[in-house]
Amino acid sequence: MGRGSSGLHAAPPVPRSAVRQRFDLLMREVAKFGAVGGAGLLVNLLVFNLVRHVTDLQVVRASVIATVVAIVFNYIGFRYFTYRDRDKSRRTKELGLFLLFSVVGLVIENGVLYAATYWFGWDSPLQSNIFKFLGIGIATLFRFWSYRTWVFRALPAEEAEVAGGESFLEAPPQAAQAAKPRVRQRVG
Fold first, then answer.
1. Do 108 and 142 meet the contact criterion of CB atoms below 8 Å apart?
2. Residue 172 pLDDT grade (very low, low, confident, very high; cuts 50, 70, 90)
3. Mean pLDDT score of the chain
4. What single Pfam family name could you report for this chain, choosing any that match (predicted)?
5. What's the pTM?
């Protein structure tokens, strides 16, 4: 045996479970969605406050304009950053679904602001920003679910590839035990 070698072999790394791999992928997706969404939030709030203070538009109308600008910004970010590896073959359908779900999100987001402004009379700049932010938060939960489920769909080949890879990585306990290298001790 060579110098410094004990004759023992290191055990091969244990593959991560399929559940852990899916969780890791979901966390990466959430982080990317959050990065684009965070930038979109800033765009939304900046445009909202700019329009509100520069024009004489009512609060909810200023908010709708800001939301539309943020929707355009977010589509570009989601398509080319968050979901760049997803199916790109049906752009027209993707854009149509994106706009449909974005309009639902717009109604959720601005519905919260409308209720706070016109039902409860909370119309100061601070209150408007708080309820605009709250509406964005509620709408974001809906948007995350709808975009990943219906708009930016995974490619079927990738899903099959991932499923095949996961089943390969998860060996039954008997096979995993048989695959462990045996350590031999030399007498002598």
1. yes
2. very low
3. 81
4. GtrA_DPMS_TM
5. 0.69
Whole-number Å distance between alpha carbons of 14 and 176: 9
| pLDDT-derived band at 15, boundaries 50, 70, 90 | low
Per-residue buried b or exposed e for 130-145, using 16+ beta carbons within 10 Å of the residue's own CB? ebbbebbeebbeebbe
| 3-class DSSP string for the chain | CCCCCCCCCCCCCCCCCHHHHHHHHHHHHHHHHHHHHHHHHHHHHHHHHHHHHHCCCCHHHHHHHHHHHHHHHHHHHHHHHHCCCCCCCCHHHHHHHHHHHHHHHHHHHHHHHHHHHHHCCCCCHHHHHHHHHHHHHHHHHHHHHHHHHHHCCCCHHHHHHHHHHHHHHCCCHHHHHHHCCCCCCCCC
7 Ramachandran zone, left/alpha/beta (phi>0; psi -120 to 50):
left
